[in-house]
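Quick check before the chapter quiz. The format below is the same one you will see on the exam, so make sure you can read both the input and the output lines.
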Amino acid sequence: MQANPHLAERKAFACKQAPTGGSPTVYSEHCWHGLKRGAYNHVNEAMSGFFHESSFHGKALRRGRHSVPGNIYIVTIVTKQRHFWFQRFDSARVVVRALLNSDRQGFSSTYAFVVMPDHLHWLVQLENKEPLSRVVQRVKSEVTRGLRQQETNIHNQVWQAGFHDHAMRNEESLIRAARYIVANPLRAGLCRSVREYPHWDCVWV
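Here is the expected output.
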């Protein structure tokens, strides 16, 4: 599959900043219409086979899996012991910047993502530079460095070893996958509408 032509024109999502006044929770300019609490059940059912978050522990995360350039994957990366490293705005933006840098350096093309307090979902097309495991490791390493620059007292391991991935099969399912990813904060009860949650982006909005 060819890379989405809109990727070259997408805005630099890592440049979003927290507001200086007003509500402390509303940072994003995005509004994916229809994605409000109670309005995503059909998406949840359609995507139930792609995500099994209760299994994102230890040996359930794959390591060094075979990957194919040009394929699109749903990648899930989880923090060590499900620690809420990304609960703070500036810490979550470290993850967003790492994804943007991966795209800029030609390792990946991001279609959608959401940064949750203790994990990341990433709908990504693998480019023809490095295998998926190496691309994921680059992102994890950059995030760890960024967090340690913010807080010099961070000495513990940030990420759980490995990652979970699902290879997408057709373009029709990409939209459903993206909607499912973006709706994660709704299912977790972190917001009432995706417009209230700052740490996501999608090429289809």
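If your answer matched, good. The first strand starts at residue 72 and ends at 78.
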